[in-house]
Specification:
This is Acyl transferase. GO terms for molecular function: transferase activity. It comes from Dawidia soli. α2 crosses α3 (35-44), α5 (99-114) crosses α6 and α8 packs parallel to α9. The protein has helices at 4-11, 19-33, 35-44, 64-67, 99-114, 136-147, 160-169, 183-192, 217-228; strands spanning 60-61, 79-82, 93-96, 120-125, 154-155, 176-181, 200-204, 233-237, 246-248, 254-255, 260-266, 269-275, 280-286, 295-304, 310-315. The chain is built from nine helices and 15 strands. 29% of the residues lie in helices and 23% in strands. α8 links the parallel β6 and β7 (200-204). The chain is globular and about 60 Å long.
Length: 329
């Protein structure tokens, strides 16, 4: 892989047969052209040419996004996404050379599972994200709202009455209606209003943002089902440090688009990878991160299954609760 353009041309043609070869190509390119990752690999004593499978690639701890600006090759970011963090906590920074690439890529991730943006009205209930700068979720939702070609697609930050009125108006719309919300805002809606969202697709993006006590995803979905009559409730697995998103398709397990893979690692031995059907740390390969780092050791706990789907069960001890992907006890 000589240029980013060369790899970009391969990103959306990747499949089960080609994923390993392309992932190794990205790994070896990043091992040479990303100074932070190159030093990390040298410290581990890993020879890139000797790695023969993507699960054996060294995964960089995601906390490096808080302490370093991770960049493969020479380019200037058009936008830098930042994580929300907790009060006083350091935040992650993820540079993106072209915002248009992120927009179009997020669209591809969504449409891989749910079909064209133009099939939907996007009603966004995302306080806390709208109240800060640098949110990748807001960048994605801005694009979805604009490109849905719906007069109803919008943010409803302090407009609960309008949200409820528009939901009622859209009950018989030929387009499907998505209510996409941060968890605490969806729970507030469920507790304060008697509303029937049985005709809507409800997407929760996790995280109480310090507004409410964290609960399990199962408990959240059950409450939304009972109070809003939303069945099923969908979830997005995304974060500042990833350019791709995984989604549930009606269950609690997430599915990845073809350019993304998950593997489980032993919590006390991060070099032991490939764990299946047991609680493990989640490692992510996101080939869309080819200009930063594609191989990330996250701070999430979960289970990975043989079919490639995965659950998110919680956060590791001593890691800050943040982002848009997590319910913990």
């Amino acid at each position: 892989m000589d240029t980013f353009k060369n790899f970009a041309s391969k990103l959306y043609s990747v499949n089960d047969d080609t994923f390993n070869d392309i992932a190794l190509e990205v790994f070896r390119f990043q091992a040479i052209n990303n100074p932070v990752y190159a030093a990390f690999i040298r410290h581990l004593g890993v020879a890139p040419a000797a790695v023969g499978h993507w699960q054996d690639v060294p995964f960089l701890p995601i906390s490096f996004f808080k302490t370093h600006f991770l960049q493969t090759g020479q380019w200037t970011p058009e936008v830098t996404f930042t994580s929300s963090g907790t009060t006083g906590a350091s935040t992650s920074r993820h540079g993106v050379e072209q915002l248009a690439f992120y927009h179009q890529h997020a669209q591809r991730c969504f449409e891989f599972f749910f079909g064209p943006l133009t099939d939907y009205h996007f009603l966004a209930l995302l306080p806390s994200y709208l109240e800060r700068q640098g949110s990748s979720l807001i960048a994605m939702m801005d694009y979805f709202i604009k490109n849905s070609q719906s007069d109803y697609s919008a943010y409803y930050l302090h407009q609960t009455d309008k949200l409820l009125a528009d939901v009622a108006k859209l009950r018989n719309s030929p387009k499907k209606t998505i209510l996409w919300g941060v968890s605490f805002a969806l729970l507030d809606l469920a507790e304060k209003h008697d509303v029937d969202l049985s005709h809507c697709l409800v997407f929760e993006t996790g995280g109480m943002k310090g507004r409410r006590k964290e609960i399990t995803r199962a408990a959240l979905h059950q409450t939304l089902y009972e109070r809003l009559h939303a069945q099923p409730v969908y979830s997005e697995y995304g974060m500042t440090e990833l350019l791709s998103q995984a989604y549930t398709t009606g269950k609690y397990t997430f599915e990845c688009p073809p350019w993304m893979r998950i593997t489980g690692r032993e919590v006390t031995d991060p070099l032991r990878k490939g764990l299946l059907e047991e609680t493990a740390g989640i490692n992510v390969v996101d080939l869309a991160n080819y200009q930063t780092i594609s191989f990330l050791e996250t701070e999430d706990l979960g289970k990975v299954y043989g079919s490639g789907v995965f659950e998110v069960l919680g956060r590791m001890d001593n890691s800050d609760i943040r982002g848009c992907n997590l319910m913990v006890e």
